[in-house]
């Protein structure tokens, strides 16, 4: 080859690698690369050569587009997709849009699955066995199509297939804590993806990709604005912009919801009050709802943070949360909208124990909420900690549909530099037994409405999405978005199965990769607990931005300080929430209460959440409490080192850019895990006055060093 030829060749190589988008993570788990198993790919090519997608709506067009894109990528071949059934091998449709499906004897089955559920199976149509993806609703067929693509992405055979899916919850939402200036509260992946300035005329292609990604995991609603709300989002200027988004999301079955600032009637309505019992205020909200629905006919409803952390609310007028929620609910009811009223409340007076407050305020209101009101409860009684026991309101409110609020963004879990797969955290809460109606009354059954027979049911996940090219900052943050959506669809899925799916779809089906990366993901949450807050410790993060350790934090209101939560003294450590302490245990049903209350039976992972324990308390391992704390912190930091080694071992099995991105972040995580370990142990050592066992590498910095570290401009606030 001449020099010129070589140059030309190199240029071509460069161009093709950038043209194929490199592997920058933008495609998420919808990365449709050729099925690695060639035999299977050829089989799929034969099975999926000709497809009919019935119907002529925006949703069926979206299905066709997705399938075209998916099959072209996965099968490396153009498939023939038609909108009329003329003897193809695959038929996707509803009884309403396909006479062939209407003629099949499956209507009962489809009705049971509902219009978001679907059936994927073989059926005889016009004397020939074909693969059918059917639902009573077109959104159901969209979900079914994504499922079909997932089968290909994860290399499942199609022969003899029978899949009948129905979501376990009605409302599966993302909550964006996005501000109108595009900053994202507790966001670590850049700025908000909502480009308010250019909406509605400029529709960023990301909006559609956002909708595709969410629909692929069954998410059917999004609250686009922060719960620390700005009333301006309710003005016509923004409502028109929202309409631009709603039009993109609608074909994908995603409804828009807004946060409603309780004082909006004053701020943008010119009224002197926002009292929910004032008729003018009530009328203002009714008019506002009518105005919103005139612009966005399928608007979902309002999410409200009231009387919490300085937000206005009904208590400003001596009204209850129920009176506030019902006023909004009545404005939305004629249009079919819902209110999601958050239970994350705490007042200006510092309580004996902040963990008590939500239950104390909401439990007595159980009878008072209108039918279209959810109470949205964070998974634990404090605030999205690496580990918390489940919130005592789960199971306690029988009359009110309770919505789960999980935090996908890693406010307290290392922002976007720590690899922490959150499905084990979500599952631990969902699988916990509330004993509300005896054994087996899991949180999942509260959430899916089955325990107390509610027709409304749902989950909300505080989004980790920003305008970073890969959406979530950390490539593995995508797994948390993915797993959250799948669990909202069905809380019974396992963390393991979801990790498996996600790895295969995002990286590779190569068993050598999965064998290493799956266990690494599954262990990662416990690892973070170990190096941050083991044994039931909580809220030991730095002041305000919550990044890094801060057990010494002692400014601001007491229940925002670390000392309030760890209560370390010369005798021991931990928050006494037993019947002889703050009595928070008594908010649980008796079986759970007794379990946590008794030092003998309280699981060690919650020990310091519920008990104040002497430093020399004997632990199950044979260590003293202090010895066990040292053990946990050191093992946490060591586990991150193991993650680094594991990741290095799969270097050659995936795209170099992806490999390197995670490698660099793991390095940050390894250093920060040591920072956490040293800072916490040195700090608590002041109280325990016990040595860190000499078998461990001793901290190389002093406590003062760690306490004097100051950081400016930490993202997320
Ligand atoms: O976790 C805390 C966060 C706040 C957040 C609040 C809430 C949106 O530190 O940033 O505010 O919870 O959930 O309302």
**Beta content:** 5-15%
SS-derived structural category: alpha/beta
User: Strand count, sense and closure of the main sheet?
Assistant: 8 strands, parallel, barrel
Q: Please tally the β strands and state the result.
A: 16
Count of helical regions:
23
The number of domains is 3
Name of the level-1 CATH class of the largest domain: Alpha Beta
Helix content: 25-40%
Quote the distance from N terminus to C terminus.
57 Å
Oligomer: single chain
**What is the alpha-carbon Rg in Å?**
27 Å
CATH architecture of the largest domain: Alpha-Beta Barrel
- Give the overall average pLDDT: 96
Ranges where pLDDT stays below 50 over 5 or more residues in a row are 4-21
CATH level 4 superfamily of the largest domain: Glycosidases
Q: Which short descriptors sum up this protein?
A:
six-stranded mixed sheet, TIM Barrel, eight-stranded parallel beta barrel, 717 residues, 3 domains, binds 4-O-methyl-beta-D-glucopyranuronic acid, alpha/beta, Chitobiase, domain 2, 39% helix, Alpha-d-glucuronidase, C-terminal Domain, 23 helices
Provide the fold topology.
Elements lengths: L2 H17 L18 H10 L2 E4 L4 H18 L4 E3 L7 E4 L5 H4 L4 H7 L4 E8 L2 E7 L3 H16 L8 E4 L5 E5 L29 H12 L4 E3 L12 H14 L5 E5 L4 H4 L11 H17 L5 E4 L16 H12 L5 E5 L14 H6 L10 E6 L23 E6 L15 H8 L12 H5 L10 E5 L14 H13 L5 H12 L4 H22 L29 H5 L5 E2 L16 H8 L9 H4 L2 E2 L10 H25 L6 H33 L14 H6 L9
Parallel strand pairs: 1-2, 1-3, 3-5, 7-8, 7-14, 8-9, 9-10, 10-11, 11-12, 12-13, 13-14
Antiparallel strand pairs: 4-5, 4-6, 15-16
Helix pairs in contact: 3-6, 10-11, 15-16, 16-17, 17-21, 21-22
The protein binds 4-O-methyl-beta-D-glucopyranuronic acid (GCW).
The site of 4-O-methyl-beta-D-glucopyranuronic acid has 11 residues, from loops.
